[in-house]
Amino acid sequence: xVEGAGRWPVRRIVLVHGAGHGAWCWEHLxxxxxxxxxxxxxPDLPGLGEDQTPPGAVxxxxxxxxxxxxxxxxxxxxxxxxxxxxxxxxSQVAEEAPELVAKLVYLAAFLPCDxxxxxxAVSATASATAGGKAGPRSGALSISRNAGEHAHEFDxxxxxxxxxxxxxxxxxxxxxxxxxxxxxxxVAARVRLSASRWGAVPKVYVQCTQDRALPPDVQRSFCxxxxxxxxxxxxxxxxxxxxxVPALAALLHEEAQAL
Length: 259
Prior knowledge:
The chain is of the alpha/beta class and about 260 residues long. It has helices at about 30-35, 60-70, 85-95, 120-130, 160-165, 170-175, 185-190, 215-225, 240-245, 245-255, and strands spanning about 10-15, 40, 80-85, 100-105, 145, 150-155, 180-185, 205-210, 230-235. The strands form 2 sheets. Strands 2-1-3-4-8-9 form a 6-stranded parallel beta sheet, sandwiched between helices. Strands 5-6-7 form a 3-stranded antiparallel beta sheet. It is globular, with a radius of gyration of 17 Å.
């Protein structure tokens, strides 16, 4: 954690999007946070949003480098928010540069243990929550195999039901049409985390109870196996930055002020 971060208000929030998305997904949330007095930054991760890096050239390290570079652009401490797959990225950023991060917020996000990939984390928790039965419905069912050797993509016809099921139909269609193929390498990469670095940064997990992409039981299990993570609950789908913007802005404001 940033030394002395608790002695002044944190006024800077960095938002890291999930698989297939881009900085565009935060467009409705950013002005709400700005009104509350925050400097908000949101990068396009390599190969997503407006970034044109080909999927075969995208690595997990390039994600981490992109976010760390944004954090270093200002001396202000940050609340670092990761949505969905962005949870693995913010975890590794906090491990490599804990002095830049005042708090981690996992928003319906993958929360890995040391040595796990995003897929490993879901497998470890889903098997426990399923109780030996078939696993819960998830956004993996919306994946299309048409993106080539180095990537996968989400079917725009199915994505609204998994990712945006509490959004109005126009917003859901708008978002689904902006999804891009997701490079495989960052999904398969294993994070390396330590108690002295990542473990020392305060963390909160926002569990979304109406999530059809990352089942709420899996989200809760992420928290249960990480005793240092505080859990909050939102009545939301996987994308509260589109479906419940005021409530998400208020939650992030509370978390920033709680340092």
